[in-house]
Each structure stands twice: as C-alpha cells, then as structure tokens.
C-alpha cells in the first residue's frame, strides 16, 4: 500500500528560531521555512525532507530521532565540539562511551548529542 510513497518524518521543538540557528548554522543543513506555518523543512541527501515544527508543550524525545552517517565519527565529534555542541556520555553495563564520547563496541561507532530542544541526534559510522 505505501511501498512507493515518498514518506517523510518530522519532530517537534520548543523554539523554531533556536532550531533554525542550530540546524542551519551549526549543522549546515539546507532548509526552507514555511512562513504561513511555524515549520522548517530540513533538506537532506536522498530527496526526502524532514519537517521540524514548533510545539508549545514540546517534550524532548528520549530516543535518537535523527542519525547523521559520517565516514569518521571521531572527526565529526571533534568538529561539532569545536562549535560548542556537547555530546552525551553513557556508562552502563555493556553500553559505554569512551573519553571522546564515542560508543565503540557492539555495533557501529556512534556518538549522541542534543539539539536545543533536547531531542537526541547522532553521528554514526557510515556503512562502507
């Protein structure tokens, strides 16, 4: 039924201006703004936009809402930290990030950070 549809995803933020600054200036994503509605469209590779909308009673997602595949996770983390982005640190049995905030065991290398609304994002090792 939906196999050939051009599905897209979306998520909420508590402040669209902060989201524009973060996604456009810090992460360097192309975007457009729907002025008639409080919506940003993030334009990502592959041709499917992601909708970001302001929601007054926004609650941050407790899971990763957006993954950015990269060739070199450690390099991406260093570059984002240089922009002031803070990475999450985890220290649980069988799930630990290292001193660079990168998870390096039991799957692809991955590091998590949050947008200004508290939603969880990641940089993840791209499949080769």
From TrEMBL:
Domain named VOC: residues: 5-126
Species per Swiss-Prot/TrEMBL record: Dyadobacter subterraneus
Lineage: Bacteria, Pseudomonadati, Bacteroidota, Cytophagia, Cytophagales
InterPro entries found in the cross-reference section: Glyas_Bleomycin-R_OHBP_Dase, Glyas_Fos-R_dOase_dom, VOC_core
Protein name: VOC family protein
